[in-house]
Amino acid sequence: MNKKQIINQLDTIALYLEIKGENSFKVAAYHRAGLALENDPRSMADIDDLSKIKGIGKSTAQVIEELMTRGESSVLAALEKEIPYGLLDLLRLPGLGGKKIGKLYRELGVTSLDSLRDVCEHGKVHALAGFGKKTEEHLLQALNDQQQRPIVLPIPYMLDLSEKIARVLKSMESISRFSHAGSLRRAKEKMKDLDFVIETTDHENVSEALLEKLPIHEIVGRGDAKMTVLLDDPNRVSVDFRFATVDSYASMLLHFTGSKEHNVQLRRMAKERNEKISEYGVEMEDGTMRTFTTEAEFYRYFGLNFIPPQAREGKDELDRAKDGPLNLIQFSDIKGDLHMHSTWSDGSHTIAEMAEAMHAKGYAYACLTDHSRSLRVANGLSTERLLKQIDEAAKIDDQYDDFTLFSGIEMDILPDGSLDYPDEVLSRLDFVIASIHSSFSQDQKQIMKRLENACRNPYVRLIAHPTGRMLGKRKGYAVDVNRLIQIAAETGTALELNASRFRLDLSSEWLGKVQDAGVKIAIDTDSHSLKMMDDMKLGVATAIRAGIKPENVINTWPIDRLKQFFNQKKKF
DNA sequence: GCCGTTTTCGGCCCGACTGTTTTCAGTCG
Predict the structure, then answer these.
(1) Nearest-5° Cα angle at A439, A435 to A445
(2) Which reaction does it catalyse (predicted)?
(3) Are residues A132 and A234 in the same domain?
(4) Smallest CA–C1' separation from A149: which nucleotide?
(5) pTM (global) more than 0.85
(6) Distance (Å) from CA A230 to C1' B14?
(7) Which residue in A126, A4, A548 sits closest to A310, CA to CA?
(8) Does A340 lie in the same domain as A315?
(9) Which domain holds residue A269?
(10) Is the CB of A61 under 7 A from strand B?
(11) Which tens digit of pLDDT belongs to each residue from A312-369?
């Protein structure tokens, strides 16, 4: 059983325990054990002593062992025997938790969504103590709408929504500051809702305006401190708006950025010194509330260096932030973008427009990398056109003295493993990227042969979007990423973090291993338009999640060092 | 169920909101 399946089983056990009415800390312990596994970068095979992992104790370790060896858990089997499986579906209805489900089961014999509907329709629910007419109505409504707790949605979808909401917030005069928070701010690839923290003195007005300007499906809750709505989009995305004052804004942002586990650890730390953290600030021993103007100031108060949102997953970041600055890459480290397209292949803007936009971003360099000749659908460059483009790019480069436009190519690795141009053509370019755009369904052996051939070419410096995945759309091809990292290390080839919101390839999970193997990384937007260049921020955010240090990212390097990398002889 | 440079037992982050209730339980993040 793989790690993901084991985590699922642990979560299922937790759900059963919740319905059983177990102590909520016991329930949380199973979730936390799953989280601990997820946060551990090692594969199941590499973990020798489970109970040494923080959050996994004797009991959960035993369950995990059993899942690994037998493929099933006796703890889970006993729960399945005791509690009808259909009750788990009820947990997905908004407003129903373990306690209420337990009551419905024990007192009304509810065992499934269908039997719940039946008792609701017969008016039996509102007679139960603790239930009432409104609860019964809401349950029926939820059953009829097939309304469920939010599913997880991919970051490209949520980022678009978030940007639309941000535009609305920006237009409101009564808002002095706002930020997205939650999983999106931590750059998780999937999330179930959106969170915004808003600084305002007039939350009534802001709530009203939001309800007016946003497409709202339903108001889930509305109070002085927050408003929760379901958007009228195909996925009925849930959005939380939290209102803060000037004083509480930083604490509020910290709190709603999470992660939950990060917050728990911070609060524990505060508790040890008899202080109490809430979203409003830090309550001192004498009851006074201390507030902060920035998150950095908050961390500093506890003797910690700043922890960027994407590093707040409740791993070991608090310990590391005690010892010194985290030395994680940040956006200001980026000196250029090494993967972009122009109208010469399938981009929407001319070389001059792309170059000027990169220059305007304050970058010191950028590299033009249109598609190669075999990628006909993208108007890939014939050898003649490529040679012409090199001249054209040089002319544009000449117009700048504080910016360099390199000439490169994104060259296809063909299905048989050969490359799209001969070496004598590649030798004319500053920077050669190789990538796969065809025959995705080949078996792993053939895919790896293609990638290995590319890495062993003396001119190929980077493998772009190494897995070929599209978030929320397709999985990518059958690449053995561990092996690719090994080959990249042997040959001195860099691997890409494609920063496009549709890709994020390699993922943060793999990038940590890339860095550990001593392989260099390029964070590129693969821009086909001016707008796409902005995804560099998302790329950096993803790199931070992976714990990437700036010195391991080639496009943080000054131009001379980058040129050295472009020209160095590869190792074989 | 997990955890401990004061602890191996007694805690476990903290608050908003709703619906059910006359002071709070349950759900949620």
Answers:
(1) 80
(2) DNA(n) + a 2'-deoxyribonucleoside 5'-triphosphate = DNA(n+1) + diphosphate
(3) no
(4) B28
(5) yes
(6) 25
(7) A548
(8) no
(9) 250-323
(10) yes
(11) 998 889 989 988 899 999 999 999 999 999 999 999 999 999 999 999 999 999 999 9
**Which CATH number covers residue A279?**
3.30.210.10
The C-alpha torsion from A87 through A93 and A98 to A101, rounded to 10°, is -60
Q: Are strands A336-340 and A276-278 parallel, antiparallel or unpaired?
A: unpaired
Q: Are residues A117 and A265 in the same domain?
A: no
User: Do residue A395 and residue A537 come from a single domain?
Assistant: yes
Considering the domain architecture, whether residues A496 and A410 belong to the same structural domain is answered as: yes
Give chain A's domain count: 4
Distance CA A12, CA A10 (A): 5
Scanning every strand, the nucleotide with its C1' closest to A103's CA turns out to be B26
What is the spatial distance, in angstroms and rounded to an integer, between the CA atom of A98 and the C1' atom of B25?
A: 13
Asked if the Cβ of residue A33 lies within 7 A of any atom of strand B, the reply is: yes
Do the Cβ atoms of A517 and A489 come closer than 8 Å?
yes
Last residue of a domain, one of A195, A223, A244: A244
Asked if the model's pLDDT at residue A149 lies above 70, the reply is: no
Q: Long-range pairs for A15-18 at CB < 8 Å and ≥24 separation?
A: A15/A88, A15/A91, A16/A76, A16/A79, A16/A80, A16/A82, A16/A83, A16/A88, A17/A79, A17/A98, A18/A91, A18/A97, A18/A98
Residue A572, domain member (yes or no): no
